[in-house]
Amino acid sequence: MTSHPPRPAADLFAADGRLKAIPRKPARREALLAHLAATLFEADRTYSEPQVNDALRSVHDDFPALRRYLVTGGFLSRTRDGADYRRQQQPGSPGGAIPAVA
CA-CA distance, 26 to 53, in Å (whole number)? Predict the structure, then answer.
């Protein structure tokens, strides 16, 4: 059983900076989400849902799915009412996030 090194998230993007597709494999999707969280959202800053949507829309049309993956994956936390979002320092520990229902 050989282990392949993880490919960088950058190869998921077209030359225009748009995401080609949301990966189906969990490890690839996790790498993408980590990349998006680090590049689109500043630490210690609160974002409104429209701001999160606009940032995600800049890379892919299915921004609701990306937002849901970021929250359920622990990359972003959100308030109970879904109005405010924050980037998390430790993915996997959502800290107050409400998991989205698929």
Answer: 22
Question: Which residues on adjacent β-strands are paired with residue 77?
Answer: 86
The pLDDT tens digits for 1-22 are 555 555 678 889 999 989 999 9
Contact assessment for residue 48 and residue 82, using Cβ atoms and an 8 Å cutoff: no
β-sheet bridge partners, residue 16: none
Burial class (CB in 10 A: 0-12, 13-18, 19+), 88: buried
Instruction: Give the end-to-end CA distance of the chain in Å, rounded to a whole number.
Output: 34
Collect all residues with Cβ–Cβ distance below 8 Å to 66 and sequence separation of at least 6: 22, 33, 36, 56, 59, 60
Following DSSP, what letter does each residue of 47-58 receive, concatenated? EEHHHHHHHHHT
pLDDT tens digits for range 22-56:
999 999 999 999 999 999 999 999 999 999 999 99
